[in-house]
Design a protein that fits this description.
- The chain is built from 14 helices and 13 strands.
- The chain is α/β, with parallel strands linked by helices.
């Protein structure tokens, strides 16, 4: 039986100067939002350190939970509206509004309008899906006076280079006969001309920052179609078809805007939406984790902390590409604070990969899973809460044990 009595271990400080721990996780995709992950880990810590000052900083790198975490931390509100979904059926979407004395910031999560989770698995086809609904969210935010837009582009169902988004904002894409192209990435192979005369002019008055945790170019073996197309339902033939279509799209768009964008890091994010946002909205791409940390005042929260816990549903080598746990660790390292990372699952890693985590400031990686679990068990919200609470308790007890030794 686990001893759940409070500890008076050496990490406990006086009431006047209590131990401070920051819990800054991402969501556990398909199971718990970041806020509940943070609360569950904190509940376990409090079983051992009841007097500790535990600060919760739920985060997102631009995917699931982006709007919720940003709006909750900033005291904003939500706007709900119906938009065109990835397969052109109507979907209910929402975005956040943060109004600081008339200075309006919109927080947009493209997945709520154009995300993979909106389509049943058997209907997924990135040759057909469109980002049009994401453009509708942007246009509505401009209508409400937003002059700063923070756009998260994780979790997309699309591979249209942002053409649908641009069409919703007034751009027109025509074939050689002058007819407008149908939606979807496949149609871009027939793109002949582009009319930007009707593109939303307020984009030039707004600042757009895109949260992305990937640095893929638009085309080629490391591009949008090859790397992410299969996750969205594209087989080898469809991947080639989509890559060729995006190549044609890039030729026409870059000629129209006068900039070479296809090879910029992040151009291939969200099926090329990164490319489209840079081309049509003059957006700047930034690490989603860094953008969230900056916007939510992470440096202030970290001040005086002795330990940081971070987490995500799957800790693996891709985490090192700048996802939330590594973003948190890098920021904590600047403050000299050790970081423990918790995974709902942890991939087996080579020593070299583990050393890279250590170099980033993550001193321990642990899994919240005990024993063999089915996928259904791993995604069960109640079970995930219990496992995270136990993980938080174990970490606190091990820290106390290490200090005693």
């Amino acid at each position: 039986m686990t001893d759940r009595s409070p500890s008076t271990g050496p990490l406990e400080k006086s009431e006047r100067n209590p131990l401070k721990v920051v819990v800054a996780p991402d969501s556990f995709k398909g199971s718990l939002p970041a806020k509940e992950v943070a609360e569950s880990l904190a509940a376990g810590l409090r079983l051992v350190w009841p007097e500790a000052r535990i600060e919760l900083l739920p985060l997102s790198d631009g995917g699931d939970g982006w709007v919720e975490s940003m709006v909750a931390a900033a005291g904003g509100s939500f706007v709900e509206l119906s938009v065109r979904g990835p397969l052109e059926d109507e979907v209910a979407a929402r975005y956040g509004v943060i109004d600081a004395e008339g200075d309006v910031t919109a927080v947009i999560e493209m997945a709520t309008a154009s995300g993979l989770a909106l389509i049943d698995e058997e209907r997924r086809d990135p040759r057909r899906t469109t980002t049009y609904g994401t453009g509708e969210l942007i246009r509505d935010a401009l209508d409400r006076g937003a002059r700063r837009l923070l756009v998260g582009i994780g979790g997309s169902a699309t591979n249209d280079g942002g053409a649908g988004m641009a069409a919703a904002l007034g751009a027109r894409f025509m074939d050689e006969s002058g007819d407008e192209l149908p939606p979807g990435g496949r149609a871009l192979a027939h793109l002949d001309s582009l009319d930007l005369s009707g593109l939303e002019r307020r984009l030039g008055e707004a600042e757009m920052i895109v949260a992305s945790d990937v640095d893929n170019p638009l085309l080629g073996d490391d591009g949008a179609s090859a790397v992410y197309g299969p996750q969205k339902g594209a087989g080898p033939k469809a991947v080639r078809e989509l890559d060729e279509a995006l190549s044609r799209f890039a030729d026409v768009v870059e000629n129209a805007v006068g900039n070479e964008i296809r090879d910029r890091p992040g151009a291939g994010a969200a099926g090329g939406l990164g490319f489209g946002l840079m081309a049509f909205c003059e957006a700047k791409l930034q690490s989603g984790a860094d953008l969230a940390l900056d916007t939510l005042g992470a440096d202030r929260v970290l001040e005086g902390a002795a330990l940081v816990l971070t987490a995500e549903g799957l800790l693996d080598s891709q985490t090192l590409s700048g996802k939330v746990p590594v973003g948190v660790a890098r920021r904590a390292k600047e403050h000299g604070i050790p970081v423990v990372a918790v995974g709902g699952a942890v991939e087996a890693m080579e020593d070299q990969t583990l050393r890279r985590f250590g170099d980033e400031g993550i001193v321990v990686i642990c899994s919240s899973v005990e024993g063999v679990r089915s996928e259904v068990d791993l995604l069960d919200p109640d079970g995930t809460r219990r496992r995270l609470e136990r993980a938080g308790e174990r970490i606190a007890r091990l820290v106390d044990l290490g200090r005693r030794l």
